Amino acid sequence: MPVRARPKKGARPPAKKPAFTSTSRGRRVYMVTGGLTKFAKAHPAMDFRLMVKRAYDYAIKGIPNLTPDRIDGTRISYFSDHFARQLKAASMVQDYLGMNPKGSVRIEWGGATGGECFQAAYEAVASGRMDVCLGAGFETMSRVATWKGNEFIALASDTNFDFPLGGFYTGYYALMVMRHIYEYLRLGKFAHVQDEREAQRLAIAEGSRIMSMVSVKNHLNALHNPYAQYPKRLSVDDVLRSEMISYPLTREQICTMSDGAACVVLCTEERAKEFTDRPVLVTGVGCGTDTMRLADRPFGKVPLLPHERARDYEKLPYPGVHSFRAGRAAGLEAYRMAGITRPTEELDFIELHDAYASSEIQTYEDLGLCRYGQGYGFVERGDPFLKGIDYGFPTPEAGAMPVNPSGGLIACGHPVGATGLMQAVFAFWQLQGTVPKHFGDPALQLDQPRRAAIHSHAGTGSAVTVSILERRFR
Amino acid sequence: MTARPLTFTRFRDAQAELERSGAVLFRDADGVESLVIRYPYSISYIHSYAEDSPFFLGLAEGRLRGSKCRKPKCAFVYATPRGHCMVCGAPTEWIDLPTSGRVHSWTTCHFGSEAFLKETPYNLCLVEFDGVGSLLLARLKDCVESDLYIGMPVRARFDPNPKYSITDVWFVPGP
C-alpha cells in the first residue's frame, strides 16, 4: 500500500473538498419500475401485506428479467404502529412478499416516511450494499375513526407541551399559514391598510382565496388519475365554503386519511440496462429537519439558494413558524448534488407534499420556485397549473412549473408510509412517458419532461426530503 | 347454521354497526366479502416530565417559567423550556417569564382529535414575550374568532386546581 508523503512544512494545505464529489456520491442509482394500489378511504378486502403485494406485483409485471431472486433486499416504510395495530408490520410484509431471508429494515420519519424510504433504498444501492433494492410502503388509516386517527397523528407532536392543548395537526398548520399570510400579505399587498384588524381580515381572505386555487388545481388534475382517492371538479367558492376545520383551513384544503401501498425498485446502472430501456437516474437526494415544537423555531437568516441574494430577505425573521427551514435544507442539498442552480428552469415538474393547500404554497418558496413572499403571486400567475386544463379561472402562465400533476396528497390521499413512494412512482411514469399506459388516460402526461423533484414532508416541517429524478434515455 | 354478521356495502355504515355488535361483513364493488371486527385497545402511560418537571410544578404555583442558556456568550432565552440550549448545547437555568405577551399567530379549531372534539371550538395561539427568543403554544380563552388578531396583547391565567398539564396555563385578551 503506498504511503502518502507528509506535506512539507509551509506547503499549502490541501484544497477543501466540496460537499458532494463524484466519488462521495457512491454508485449511480436508477429507478426501473414502481407500482401502487389505488388510494382509498378504506380497503377492507386487503390488509397491509396484500396491498403491498399488489403494488409489488404491478411493479415487476412485464419486466421478465426482474424476477424476485434478482432483488437483493428491501426497505419497508410505514408511519404509525398505532394505525397498524401490529408491531413489526414491515417484517410481515417482507415475509408475505417471499423476501426472507434477505436483508430489510423498517423506515419511519413521520409524514416524510415514504420519502425517507425512497432515500434509504437509494443509499442501499449507492453504497454498494445491494445491486437491486425494493422500497415499499403502506398505511392502513381506516382502522380507526377519522378523529381518533387525527389523535394518533397528533401524537407526533410534543406530548408534554403541544398535544394536551388540543393536539391537532390541522390546527398546527393553521397557526403556520396565519403567520405566513401576516408576513407576506398583511405586510405586503395590504401594507397600506391602516386599521390592523381590517388589514389582517383582508389578508386572510386573500390568502384563503389563493389557497383554494391550489385545492381546485389538485382535485381537478386528479380527475385523470385512476389511483386518486378524491378526484373532483370544484370552484374556489366550493373550497372556501366547505366545512371550516381550523381557521382559515377548510376541509377541501386538507388531505384525507387513506389506505394504500406503493413501491419502487432501485438498482445499479448495470442492472438497470437489463430491466428497462427507459431508466430514470436519481441525481440528487436531500433531507432537512427542524424543531419538533413550532414554538422553538428560531429567527435567523435564510439559507440562500444560488439564485437568491441576502438583500432579498434583510428584514425577514426566518423560519419562524411561517416557512419550512427543513424543506429549504432538503432542497439545498438535493439541488447541489444534482447541479441545479435555477430550479424553475432546470426542473420540469414537482410532485410536492401538499398535505395542506397552505403548505404547498409555503413549499414553493422553500424550494426556490419563487422568492419567499411570492408564493401567492406564483399561484395567481398560474405557474404551477397544467396547460390545457380549464380550472375555472385564468392561469396565464400554466405549464411554467407544473406542481402535483398527479393531484398530490389533497386529491390522491395520504396513506403516510406510501405517500412519498407514490410521488416517486408518478414522477417515474411522467419521466418515462408512460402515464397514458398506467393511467389509461393521456391527459396528465407532460411533454417529454427530463427532470423532476419529489418532496416528502413530516409534521409541521420537522423533516423534509427532496429527491431529483432524471430521464436517461432518448 | 351459524349466524353471519350483517353485510354492508358502505364502509361508513359498517363502522356504525361495528360499534353496536362488534362484527360485520363488508362487501366491496367486486363482491369480495371481508369479515371486520372491533378490536378495542386502551392504556394508561406512566409519563415522567423528567427535566421539564419544574415548569409544570411552576404552573401549579401560578408561575410561568422559561429557561435561559447558562453560557453568557449565548444566553438564549426560551419561552418553552428545555434542559439544554439548542443553539450552543450548554445547560439552561430556570427563569420567570413575563405573564403578558402578544399573539404571534392563532387559529380556532372547529374540529380536533377525538380527545378534544368535545372542547371545540377552541383557540390555539403562539405567544411571544419581550426579551424571549422562542414562543409558547397555549389555549386562548374568553374571546372568539372575530376578536383575534396577530399582535393582540394577552396575559396568562392559571388553573387554581392544577392538573399538572400544559393546560394549567392559558391566555386571555388584555395587557
What do these coordinates show?
The complex is a heterodimer of chains A (474) and B (175). By secondary structure, chain A is α+β, with helices and mostly antiparallel strands. Chain A is 36% helix and 15% strand. Chain A has helices at 48-60, 81-84, 89-96, 113-126, 146-154, 169-189, 196-221, 236-241, 269-275, 325-338, 343-346, 357-366, 375-381, 408-412, 416-432, 435-439, and strands at residues 29-36, 73-77, 106-107, 132-140, 244-246, 249-250, 259-267, 280-289, 299-300, 318-319, 349-351, 451-458, 463-471. In chain A, strand 12 and strand 13 (463-471) form a beta hairpin. In chain A, helix 6 (169-189) packs across helix 7 and helix 7 packs across helix 12. The radius of gyration of chain A is 22 Å and the shape is globular. In chain A, 62% of the residues are buried. The radius of gyration of chain B is 24 Å and the shape is elongated. The termini of chain B are far apart. Chain B has 2 helices and 11 strands, in the order E-H-E-E-H-E-E-E-E-E-E-E-E. Chain B has 2 domains: 7-37, no CATH class; 51-173, no CATH class. The longest helix of chain B is centred in the N-terminal third of the chain and has 11 residues, at 11-21. Chain B has helices spanning 11-21, 53-60, and strands at 7-8, 23-27, 33-37, 65-69, 77-78, 92-96, 100-109, 122-128, 136-140, 153-158, 169-173. The mean pLDDT of chain B is 95. A 5-stranded antiparallel beta sheet of chain B has the order 9-8-7-10-11, with no helix packed on it. Chain B has a 3-stranded mixed beta sheet with strand order 1-2-3, covered by helices on one side. Chain B has a 3-stranded antiparallel beta sheet with strand order 5-4-6. Chain B is mainly beta and 175 residues long. The chains are: A alpha+beta (474), B mainly beta (175). At the A-B interface, helix 5, helix 6, helix 7 and strand 5 of A face helix 1, strand 7, strand 8 and strand 9 of B.
